[in-house]
Design goal:
The complex is a heterodimer of chains A (228) and B (291). Chain A has 228 residues and is mainly alpha-helical. Chain A has helices at residues 2-16, 20-53, 59-68, 74-85, 100-124, 128-136, 141-151, 153-169, 172-178, 188-197, 201-227. Chain A has a single domain (26-227), classed as MetI-like fold. Chain A is built from 11 helices and no strands. In chain A, helix 4 packs parallel to helix 9. Chain B is of the alpha/beta class and 291 residues long. Chain B has 2 domains: 38-116 and 232-284, Periplasmic binding protein-like II (D-Maltodextrin-Binding Protein, domain 2), CATH 3.40.190.10; 118-231, 3-Layer(aba) Sandwich (D-Maltodextrin-Binding Protein, domain 2). Chain B contains 13 helices and 10 strands. Chain B has helices at residues 2-30, 45-49, 52-64, 75-84, 95-103, 135-145, 158-169, 174-178, 191-201, 209-215, 250-261, 263-271, 274-277, and strands at 38-43, 67-72, 89-92, 107-122, 150-152, 184-186, 204-208, 222-225, 232-240, 283-284. Chain B starts with a helix and ends in a 7-residue tail after the last strand. Classes of the chains: A mainly alpha (228), B alpha/beta (291). Chains A and B meet through helix 2, helix 10 and helix 11 of A and helix 1, strand 2 and helix 9 of B.
Chain lengths: 228, 291
């Protein structure tokens, strides 16, 4: 128990003193996950709207498949991306394995199902009357989508927060495709894994708390924007 | 309507610019486009847990103006990375597999650069009474009496390979050992965590001396068996053969190997940890197999 308390004190100490190594690792965690979450959102929210506003055969099955992939183990995504980008693999020529870029790509793959699935749910939750009104007022398909998306913005934002949470907290993928290289691909979760294996439990706990602290700030910023 | 659309877009734009700003800042400090080349080395965990790589890395980077990426994996994974050409050089410790790796054309040559000895460590009380035995007899006693648990790395690492070799030398088929009973625990983790688990369970395990000393303050275990030729633990560096993987950086890899076997660095390796642990962690052996 004392370790948890000491970890807490250590976390505060590392934040207050702006420990350069910890700040660097935290900054990298944040920038990689924000990038992947932003890119995935830009891709998924329109795509989810397309799926939601169109009826086509197999739509239910597609949504079921998307929801199934919520359970995608991070280490499996890691393995998939590793094999893809390994020098012996089909995208080996890009020379991206063990770089932050490939970590962003992996995280995008990881959170795409969540963003798609939860955005579709969010849109489904909008009162049908709004849709009908928009159509009766002569809105184009795109305008209707914008209106419904705006109505669903809280739930869509929740999807984005969820996606970000999964991206910043995952370990298996980052370890496998990033390689946990000091000063290059080491992020908070891989640092926790390394420090734990080195027996530095307090530092590991402190890093975990810093990760939560970052998530708190990101959520705070997003919520402030939403309330405007 | 139009105004509303625009005003609703403002927060979105604000968010995007904020994020781009953050990413921009993050990237400029986190991963500046490297002016120098990057050399990738995959290393066995023991050379990392002891801090040796952390100690040598900046010296190499400065001397050769190259960014060294050290990846902390087990020998098994390091060899796999090497086979796939995902790293340029590996530092590992599993002689038979290294020789096979080189014979198959994946590695240029096996260059030993340091060695130490494995130890069988366990609780101070030594419940199985194996102290002073040869490693082979100690394993035999563990197997036959079933007194005392044994934690195996179980991860195809160099240490795990050595453990298998001792079981074979003691006259057992490793597959029968694995299913011999609940006393045999396959951990599937690195050396440091294995020591911590062994300490929690007050069991026995096979460890390299370097990691054991580096963890000594955190665990409640003592060396039980420390004599026997079979316990020799040789670390070698292997450059990945560009014939099989043309994209690997053979010149930089060769630089790293000359660095490791250079007289100055050999001396530093020999002195490494002496001050902190009161004994030598690694005996340098520049390029030659220790006798």
């Amino acid at each position: 128990m004392t370790e948890i308390w000491q970890g807490f004190i250590k976390a505060i100490e590392l934040i207050v003193t702006l420990d350069p190594e910890v700040m660097e690792i935290a900054g990298r965690s944040l920038s990689i996950s924000v990038t992947s979450c932003l890119l995935a959102s830009v891709m998924c929210i329109p795509l989810a709207s397309l799926i939601h506003f169109h009826n086509f055969p197999g739509k239910r099955i597609l949504i079921n498949v998307i929801q199934t992939f919520f359970s995608l183990p991070t280490v499996c995504v890691g393995l998939f991306v590793f094999v893809l980008f390994s020098r012996a693999g089909p995208l080996g020529g890009t020379n991206l394995l063990f770089t932050p870029t490939v970590m962003v790509i992996g995280q995008m793959i990881l959170i795409t199902p969540i963003l798609l699935g939860l955005t579709i749910s969010a849109l489904s939750g909008v009162d049908k009357a709004i849709l009908d009104t928009a159509i009766s007022l002569g809105a184009s398909g795109f305008q209707v989508a914008v209106v419904v998306l705006r109505e669903a913005r809280y739930a869509v934002l929740a999807a984005v927060i969820m996606g970000f949470g999964r991206a910043i907290s995952e370990l298996g993928l980052a370890l496998m495709v990033g390689g946990n290289i000091k000063g290059f691909t080491r992020i908070i979760t891989t640092a926790i894994s390394l420090e734990t294996s080195k027996g530095e439990l307090e530092l590991s706990l402190a890093l975990g708390m810093i990760l939560i602290f970052i998530a708190l700030i990101v959520n705070f910023v997003l919520n402030r924007i939403q309330q405007r | 309507m139009k105004n509303k659309v625009i005003s609703s877009l403002i927060p979105v734009i604000a968010l995007i610019s904020l994020i781009i700003g953050m990413v921009g800042c993050g990237d400029s400090t986190a991963s500046p486009l490297p002016p120098q080349e990057r050399l990738r080395v995959a290393t066995t965990t023991s050379l990392y847990d002891t801090g040796l790589w952390g100690y040598l890395e900046p010296m190499f980077e400065e001397q050769y103006n190259v960014e060294l990426d050290v990846m902390y994996v087990g020998t098994g994974k390091a060899l796999e990375y090497g086979r796939r050409g995902d790293v340029d050089v590996i530092t590992v410790h599993s002689k038979a597999r290294e020789e096979q790796f080189v014979a198959e054309g994946y590695g240029v040559a096996r260059v030993p650069f340091a060695y130490n000895y494995f130890r069988i460590v366990g609780p101070a009380g030594d419940p199985a009474g194996i102290e002073g035995m040869s490693p082979e007899d100690a394993f035999k006693t563990l197997m036959e009496t079933g007194i005392g648990s044994f934690v195996s790395r179980g991860d195809d690492s160099g240490t795990h390979g050595k453990e298998k070799a001792i079981w074979e030398a003691a006259g057992f088929n490793y597959e029968t050992v694995r299913i011999a009973g609940t006393w045999y625990i396959e951990a599937g983790i690195g050396m440091g965590p294995t020591l911590m688990m062994t300490s929690e369970k007050q069991a026995y395990t096979l460890t390299d001396m370097g990691t054991f000393l580096a963890y000594k303050g955190k665990i409640d275990l003592v060396p039980i068996v420390d004599k026997g030729d079979i316990l020799l633990n040789v670390y070698s560096a292997i450059a990945i053969n560009p014939e099989n993987n043309p994209k690997t950086k053979i010149d930089l890899a060769n630089n790293l190997i000359s660095f490791l076997t250079s007289p100055e660095i050999q001396e530093l390796i020999g002195d490494y940890g002496v001050e902190e642990y009161g004994m030598q962690l690694f005996t340098p052996c520049a390029g030659a197999e220790p006798k």
